[in-house]
Amino acid sequence: MEIRGPLELPAVREDIELVTADGLTLVGELALPEGTAPAATLVTLHPLPTAGGFMDSHIIRKAAARLPALADLAVLRFNTRGTTSPRGTSDGAFDGGAAERFDVAAAMDFVAERALPRPWLLGWSFGTELALKYGREHAIEGIILLSPPLHRATEAEVAAWADSDVPVVVLIPELDDYLRPDEARRRFASIPHAQLIAVEGGKHLWVGESQTRRVLTEIVAAVNPSALPLATYWPPVD
């Protein structure tokens, strides 16, 4: 069958809980490849919860549904504090990106406890702010930023990544509601090694199968390029 929409490919899926340093329990899911060790790990950070973002926001949900099978990736997704999804509601209340520092740390503690390999932070919209603000505090392979609005991450916090040797991959939709390619090039110029990818016809929410496939392809190109090209049918067609 063609891989599209909400189709969930085989994986080992586990409901998990993360415990933050300030005593909150966050709900989430870990998806692992079946029958093989993961080549790398995606720690996903979802869009703004006050605007409907949660661990099931569609790109994050589809990454967890497809990439363990298609690219041998572990995918960790969770609701930040005060966020609700069908998985449940995480303790606490939205704090505008401040106390969410503890949420990122709890996810990275879980990665270390489970010995999950080569963790990358994958942020989308609000999640990119968390990755930029707090990612440098953790042992990560790199960060991937989808539709960064740069509303909360300061110029200094962005520029601080210039001193890091980890990859910074930035996907900017041509028709983004908040930050379009020309402005993004200026705002990210302080990180000389940032890879900025302008996506023609792309929009902030990456709606539609063609945009979903483009985003997932760019993620895998950064994290496990040997898995490309991604299969479009399951089981894969030779």
Task: Give an account of the 3D structure.
The chain has 238 residues and is an alpha/beta fold. Helix content is 27%, strand content 23%. It has helices spanning 58-71, 100-113, 126-134, 155-159, 181-187, 209-223; strands at residues 12-19, 25-32, 40-45, 73-78, 84-85, 88-89, 119-124, 142-146, 168-173, 195-199. Helix 3 links the parallel strand 7 (119-124) and strand 8. Helix 1 packs across helix 6 and helix 2 (100-113) crosses helix 3 (126-134).
Tell me what portion of residues adopts beta-strand conformation.
Answer: 15-25%
Distance between the termini: 14 Å
Give me the Rg, rounded.
Answer: 16 Å
Number of helices: 6
The ordered string of helix (H) and strand (E) elements is: EEEHEEEHEHEHEHEH
State the total count of DSSP E strands. Answer: 10
List the helices and strands and how they pair.
Layout: E1 12-19, E2 25-32, E3 40-45, H1 58-71, E4 73-78, E5 84-85, E6 88-89, H2 100-113, E7 119-124, H3 126-134, E8 142-146, H4 155-159, E9 168-173, H5 181-187, E10 195-199, H6 209-223
Parallel strand pairs: 3-4, 3-7, 7-8, 8-9, 9-10
Antiparallel strand pairs: 1-2, 2-4, 5-6
Helix pairs in contact: 1-6, 2-3
Brief descriptors of the model:
single chain; 238 residues; 6 helices; globular; two-stranded antiparallel sheet; alpha/beta; 27% helix
Summarize the structure.
With 238 residues, the protein is α/β, with parallel strands linked by helices. The chain has 6 helices and 10 strands; from the N terminus they run βββαβββαβαβαβαβα. The longest helix has 15 residues, at 209-223.
